[in-house]
Design brief:
This protein has seven helices and no strands. By secondary structure, it is mostly helical. The longest helix is centred in the middle third of the chain and has 25 residues.
Length: 176
């Protein structure tokens, strides 16, 4: 088993396989021909990460490389589908809390009051929970938030429980 994968671990078989599989993905999941170098890079990175687990006593190298490439492609497609389900960060701009809207527009007034209430609840949260809330409001999943903040996913779930309780105490349960 090699300790660390490196580009010298790639033989002609691995390079050809990566190139062929990346080109086969064009047209799937919104991938275009311009994306081929990025796809090749993503597959190569995942292959390098997985090659450290190669054990020649368990399987031939080519079979192991094929397996890693197949899994890398599945992960790439799964991540792209998940990104489509998640709304892009910042798509719903909220009114600045400092600006009071014109009283004649009741919808804007309600929106402003909600923004003030949410900001108040968030300000009352501990710093850790507030950091999690900011990541989740930016569109990150709980797993992505955990990874970005450098905490366990179970801790993130605990922080979300705290947030839910705080929103319920503020009578904002409908906005969870």
């Amino acid at each position: 088993m090699s300790e660390q994968g490196s580009s010298r671990d790639f033989d002609d078989f691995a390079r050809r396989l990566i190139r062929r599989k990346a080109r086969q993905l064009v047209g799937r999941a919104g991938l275009r021909f311009q994306d081929v170098p990025d796809i090749e890079h993503e597959i190569a990175v995942r292959l390098l990460q997985g090659l450290r687990w190669f054990d020649p006593n368990r399987a031939p190298r080519d079979a192991f490389v094929r397996h890693l490439v197949k899994n890398a492609i599945a992960s790439l497609l799964r991540d792209r589908r998940a990104a489509k389900r998640r709304p892009p960060a910042g798509t719903s701009p909220s009114a600045p809390v400092e600006q009071v809207p014109d009283e004649s527009d009741a919808r804007l007034v309600r929106h402003w009051k909600l923004a003030v209430d949410v900001a108040t609840v968030l300000a009352g949260l501990p710093d850790d929970a507030r950091a999690v809330a900011e990541r989740l409001m930016a569109g990150d999943s709980k797993t992505d938030a955990a990874r970005a903040i450098g905490r366990k996913r179970t801790t993130i779930y605990r922080e979300v429980k705290l947030m839910r309780a705080a929103f319920e105490r503020a009578s904002l349960r409908d906005y969870l």
